[in-house]
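LytR family transcriptional regulator (Lysinibacillus xylanilyticus), 216 aa
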Amino acid sequence: MDPKQIEEIMEIIKEFFPENTSIAISDTNEYLYYQASKKVDLKIKPGDPIKEGSAAHKALNYGQKISSYIEPDVFGVAYYGMSIPLMEEGETKGAITAIFPQKPSAFLTNYITIKIDDCWYPIKHDQVIYLETQLRKTFVKTMSREGYHRLNLSDLELFLAPDSFIRCHRSYIVNIDYIDEIQPDSHSTFLLIMKDGTRIPVSQRYASYFRRSLGF
């Protein structure tokens, strides 16, 4: 990951998180960037290896967004971490981790704003059926509207509630409330039939996490 990519990521993150958030960016082995806040500082330095049990370590191991309380025995400071793997052509290249002194409550907006033609529309998260990667943007589908968000799927995933949204494929995140049926499928592991009739695959990469999350 080059400095320009890190700079672009940081510009996106600053729009969403408050000042008391520490941010760490890593590849699959070590930290590349760290910005501490006044509220919580893990004393990470670029080049430090990713510690086992940390939020970044969990996200890289699971290949999935995680939100978790991390005990103080990892860094010497307890924190709440939200971490998401960075994907490139289906491969994990690193992780972005937001570090909080405690579990965040309502600072993240419950809306996602999509563009349709030349207008923008705020959509509540609970109205979103699924999100799909299309041409480096994210296609957002609801029962009444569909449009595009400027962030890509991996960037946007960090701001979605993990108890409602689940990644099932490198190109799809679905709202669990809108899954109508889960079918076995010969071309992928499972096929999701959404309440709007859309058929979405669950790829082998995400199958184990998907089954564990939904308890089947």
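The chain has two domains: 1-98, 109-212. The chain is about 20% helix and 40% strand. ok done for today
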